[in-house]
């Protein structure tokens, strides 16, 4: 068995959902070991959290700069190889930039940066570095999403006509309607979250899902946001019309105020031969739609699935897999890339996906602010 990859973690301490998700994913295929970390800006809390996890405190650093300084002093065989960035959005760019400059591979939560210009700067730096970089669009790791991608690539739908992607949540309702709360939460603070809340946090996942599954690029869009209150400067709901080609169009809908919704990411893709429908809250079912035949259902773990889907399936058919497994599949793909092993280009989102995501977010904001006009993506 190959030696485990030495993993550093930035953020994700305490009761952070993202932190648990990344740690479980990193352990899933026995490819990584947590070697060092800055779990929390408070060093004492970071040390205590490491003890709770049973991790040696020798390389739990007081801050990010100290981690870089101390790790780069170590021999190549001992130092952290890849760092996972799980901090609030505004820290992603400076951390990712410094990691690449100092020879680390990077696993970064989305959005990769808070501006498109930062994303392009990071892309140029990444190209020179020769390091592996992934943005954790977790949902691309689901076996049935990968199955849909491979079947579309093989022509199962024929020419694509229309795409309908949505991501509905209701979690911000208790915050947005309380003036004091909405002026204090970091996701509604542009200095920490970037220029968009709803579209930058969840709408970008729907955008990524459209391009990942169809293999097409969105060329232009028209966006309409809802802020709900005049003193709220960040979108909490939005609808985006998209054009992928002259005759391939669609819609991306995202909301954080969809009352009663939990984590409602879903996508439907319609083609000349058939259609696909997949929902994140029921991830083990991929529906193939037809005008002439009954609906066909694909499920994970069966021999009829693609190699990419089966490679990301850990359990026999009939055993539900979920979001931890999806993130684990991304970490597994990154491990293959770091080790120089062969991998499918659908195994983990890349720097390109991160840059495209920021291009999308900024275009939606520009479209809304210009009076709901069409805006081209690069």
UniProtKB/TrEMBL annotation:
Q: What Pfam families does the annotation carry?
A: GFO_IDH_MocA (PF01408), GFO_IDH_MocA_C3 (PF22725)
> Residues in domain GFO/IDH/MocA-like oxidoreductase?
145-276
Q: Where's the Gfo/Idh/MocA-like oxidoreductase N-terminal domain?
A: 7-137
Q: Which superkingdom does the taxonomy of this entry point to?
A: Bacteria
Q: Which InterPro entries match?
A: Gfo/Idh/MocA-like_OxRdtase_N, Gfo/Idh/MocA_oxidoreduct, GFO_IDH_MocA-like_dom, NAD(P)-bd_dom_sf
Renumbered to this chain, the signal peptide range is: none
Q: Name one GO molecular function term.
A: nucleotide binding
What is the protein's given name? Oxidoreductase, Gfo/Idh/MocA family protein
Organism placement in taxonomy: Bacteria, Pseudomonadati, Bacteroidota, Flavobacteriia, Flavobacteriales
